[in-house]
Amino acid sequence: MPQVNYDTSTPVLVTGATGYVAGWLVKRLLEEGFTVHGAVRDPDDPARTGHLTALAAQSPGTLKLFRADLLQEGSYGPAMEGCGVVFHTASPFTSKITDPQRDLVDPALKGTRNVLATVDATPSVRRVVLTSSCAAIYGDTVDVAEAPGGVLTEKQWNTTSSIGHQAYSYSKTVAERAAWEMAQAQSRWKLVVINPSLVIGPALSETQTSESFALIRQLGDGTLKTGVPHVELGAVDVRDVAEAHMRAAFIEAAEGRHITSARTVSFLELAMMLREKFGDEWPLPRRQVPKWLIWLVGPMINKAFTRRMIARNMGLAWQADNSKSKTELGLEYRPLDIAVQEMFQQLIDTGQLRRK
Ligand code: NAP
After folding, report:
1. Which of 20, 104, 112, 198 most suits a substitution to test ligand 1, by most atoms within 8 Å of the C-beta?
2. Is the pLDDT assigned to residue 21 strictly greater than 70?
3. Residue 275, in any domain of the structure
4. Is 40 close to ligand 1, i.e. is its CB under 6 Å away?
5. Residue 239 in 3-state DSSP?
6. Is residue 39 within 8 Å of 87, Cβ to Cβ?
7. Are 340 and 200 in contact (CB under 8 A)?
8. How far apart are CA 354 and CA 356, in angstroms?
């Protein structure tokens, strides 16, 4: 296990502190005794920040909330003042969009440039940990076969997403590229990047905006009761993603990108893990729908199922090499069945899962 040095003498900044991933990161930082500056869009909304203030009240660390917006230049200045580490997690992960440029790419790309410009202007910052994604490594599953040996590594970049096809993946790719450009243009602060696959597991707040919840909810609300498309992807427990951020910040030698993914799963496999705990209580899918059927009727049912999307993502193998996260960050991944079951239980308990 590489040595982790939690130096709590200077505060740290977490952008998008209200988020699903950020919540667990803030929790870990508070447990270690850090003073955490949480940058949020609305610090006065207890529905978004109540869980964070409650956590702080029970932890050795201290939480200070600041108002900031990715699209407002200079707005992260007050929150960053005096911080040694900046965790930049804020970026929209949602399919509820009308304009991909305005709703995804601008906050991701302009937001990253805005935050890093403030890092350039804040002498106390020595390290930035950026929450990127496996979406910045590959675009569609078909791209995985192009990687050496059919296995994604940190060397690959997503070259196939665009504003018109997989706009979220495009937003993460251009944002991470911009971050590396800005990091390489100076020598005072170091950039370390975490690239999670699909993040699953319970949230610390009752209301969630992350698309992770929409995806898991669909497995139980009846949308997919006749079957799921055969799509393979990586998944990881949210608590492991938070831990990866801690290690990326406080292991001196940490550098570069880190695929943070426990293993490959399919949507059917996730549904089977849920069936193990919830039985037939919910209309979980039992089978995979053949690709030809989705090809035929998919575009009529869901506008996200374009023929291009189907051809490039269904029935194809997904594999990624997570060994760098294990050797250099010392991560040990939790099992995915517990993560998905706890997440589903939370959706039930908070009334967010209803049969269609
Ligand atoms: P989330 O809960 O929706 O968090 C996104 C955060 O971004 C929210 O706190 C939101 O703040 C903030 N945000 C959005 N637009 C903003 C703006 N204009 N100005 C300031 N803040 C803004 O989603 P998440 O899943 O935790 O995602 C966190 C990060 O992890 C993102 O960078 C995402 O790309 C990355 N990631 C997620 C997954 C996954 O499967 N969940 C996988 C790989 C990478 P408000 O509270 O103000 O809305």
Report:
1. 20
2. yes
3. yes
4. yes
5. helix
6. no
7. yes
8. 6
Residue 61 token pair: 């660390």
pLDDT digits (tens, 9 = 90+) for 160-177: 999 999 999 999 999 999
pLDDT tens for 64-86 read 999 999 999 999 999 999 999 99
**How many domains does the chain fold into?**
1
Give the DSSP letter of residue 144.
G
Tell me the per-residue pLDDT of 129-162, one tens digit each, with 9 for 90 and over.
999 999 999 999 999 999 999 999 999 999 999 9
Cα(59)–Cα(96) distance, integer angstroms = 35
Give percent of the chain with pLDDT exceeding 90: 88
Average pLDDT for residues 264-269, to the nearest whole number? 97
Atom of ligand 1 nearest to the CA of 88: 32
Helix-strand-coil percent breakdown of the chain, rounded to 5? 45, 15, 40
| Protein residue with least CA distance to atom 8, ligand 1 | 19
Which amino acid, 12? V
pLDDT exceeds cutoff 80 at 299? no
- Ligand 1 mutation pick, 40, 41, 169, 270, max ligand atoms within 8 A of CB: 41
> Which residue has 């707040």 as its token pair?
205
Beta bridge partners of 66: 39
By DSSP bridging, strand 288-289 and strand 228-229 are parallel
Which structural domain range is residue 114 located in? 12-349
* Position 301 pLDDT exceeds 70: no
How far is the CA of 292 from the CAs of 296, 298, 310, 311, in angstroms?
6, 9, 9, 10
**Residue 199: is its pLDDT beyond 80?**
yes
Instruction: Please determine, for residue 295, whether its predicted confidence score (pLDDT) is greater than 90.
Output: no
307 sits in which H/E element: helix 307-313
Q: Is residue 247 part of a domain?
A: yes
Going by their DSSP bridges, the two strands 256-260 and 190-196 should be labelled as parallel
Please check whether residue 220 lies inside any domain of the structure. Answer: yes
Residue 172 appears among annotated catalytic residues: yes
Q: Which residue has the tokens 């990326």?
A: 248
For the domain that residue 36 is a member of, what is the CATH number? 3.40.50.720
Average pLDDT, the chain: 95
